[in-house]
Amino acid sequence: MKQTAVRMSTYTADVSGVCSALYELGGMVVIHDPSGCNSTYNTHDEPRWYHMDSLIYISGLKEMDALMGNEEKFIRDIEEAARDLKPRFIALVRTPVPYMTGMDFEAAAMRIEEETGIPAFYVPTNGMHSYVYGAGNALALVTGLLAKERSAAASGKEHPLRINLLGVTPLDFSVGSSLSSLKAFLSDRGFEMISCLAMGSSAEEIAEAGKADVNLVVSSVGLKAAKVLQRRFGTPYVIGLPCSFGGEKSRFAENLASQLQKTAECGFSVNLCSGNCDVNHSEKKAYIIGEAVTSYSIAAAFAEKYGFLPRVICPLDSPEELMADEILFLHSEEDIVKQIEEADLVIADPMYRALAPAGADFIDLPHEAYSGRIYRNRIPDLMHLPDWGTEHDL
C-alpha cells in the first residue's frame, strides 16, 4: 500500500520528461498511446507549448490495434509524417498500454530509420517512472546522436574554459530567470558556453558539445548525458548548482566555479552534492523536498546563510551516483510523513503543505515538475533565492 498517495500529488512522468528534453531540438517525438498522455503533457508539463512549435505527436492507439498488435499502421503513419515534415530525428515513446502488450519498439525504430533515412530511436519509458528517468535517457540518446567527433585542437592556441550545461529543462528550471542567471554566473567567471542540454540551445550547438573542457550537471536529468560525453570525448563533469541567497555571494557557488577549473585540468569528475557542507548541525530539524541536485545545492547555500543544514528528501528515481548519505530517497507518502513528523522547518513545493506537521514552519519552493503551472509565477530564481529569514524565524 506504500504506492498509494492520499495527500501527495505526483511528479511529471517519464513520457513527458522525454518530450521536455527533446522539445527544442528539431526532432519528431511520437507517443504511442490512445491520446491521454499528450493532453496531460501539453496542459500541465510544458510551459513552451503556446509560444514555441515542436513536432510532438500521439499515435491515437485504438483498442483493437492494441489487442491485435497493428504495428504496421503505427509505422506507416510515422513514415508518412516524417517524409512531409523532415525532422532531424524521430523518437518513439512508450506508454503503459504498448508496454503491457509487448510491442517491439526497437525493431520499429530500426525499420523507420531504414525506410526514411532519418535517425530514429526508442526511449524505454512506460509511464511508471518520473521525468528524471525519461528526460535523462532521452538526453543521453540525443547527445550520442547529435554530438560530432571533435577535430584536434590547434596547438598553442589559448581559449576560455569551455563548458556544457547538462540537465536543463523547464521541469526543474521553469521559464523564469534561473537559466539566464546561471549563464551569467558562468560567463562572469570566464567560462565559454558551448551548449545547454536541452533548453535554449539548438541542435547545431549540441553538435559541438564534444569541444567542451568540462561539463556542469545541474540536475539529475543531465547525469547520463554527462557520462556519454565522458565516454566519447573524455570530458569530466561536476555535479552541482551555484545557488545563493539574498543577493550575497555563496561559498558553495564560488567553490563550484573553482572546482570546474580544477576538474578541467585534472580530468576527474566531482559530485559536489555529497559531503561538501562544512557547517555545524543544529538541533533544528529541517528538510528540503525535491530533485536531488537542485535541492542539495540549495541546502548547501542555505546552511551558509542561516547556520544549519536542511536534510534533503528526494522522492524521485535518481541515478545511483547521486545516492549520497546526505540525501534521503523516499518514494512513498507514508515514508515522507514519517520522516518529517517532528520537523521544525520544511522547504518544498506548496502542495507538500498537506504532509507537513502542524507546528512546522513551511517555506514555499514551487517545482514545475510537481505542481505544474499552479505556482509558476512564484518560482524563484534558483541562482538568487530570496532571503527567507526576513519572513521566517531562521
Please provide a written account of the structure.
It is a single chain. The protein is α/β, with parallel strands linked by helices. The protein folds into 3 domains: 14-129, Nitrogenase molybdenum iron protein domain (Rossmann fold), CATH 3.40.50.1980; 161-271, Rossmann fold; 286-390, 3-Layer(aba) Sandwich (Rossmann fold). The chain is built from 15 helices and 14 strands. It has helices spanning 14-22, 36-45, 63-68, 71-85, 96-101, 105-116, 131-146, 170-173, 178-188, 203-207, 223-233, 251-266, 292-306, 333-340, 368-371, and strands at 28-32, 55-58, 90-94, 120-123, 161-166, 191-197, 214-217, 237-239, 270-271, 286-289, 311-314, 327-329, 345-348, 361-364. Strands 6-5-7-8-9 form a 5-stranded parallel sheet, with helices on both faces. Strands 12-11-10-13-14 form a 5-stranded parallel sheet, with helices on one face. Strands 2-1-3-4 form a 4-stranded parallel sheet, sandwiched between helices. It starts with 13 loop residues before the first helix and ends in a 23-residue tail after the last helix. The mean pLDDT is 90.
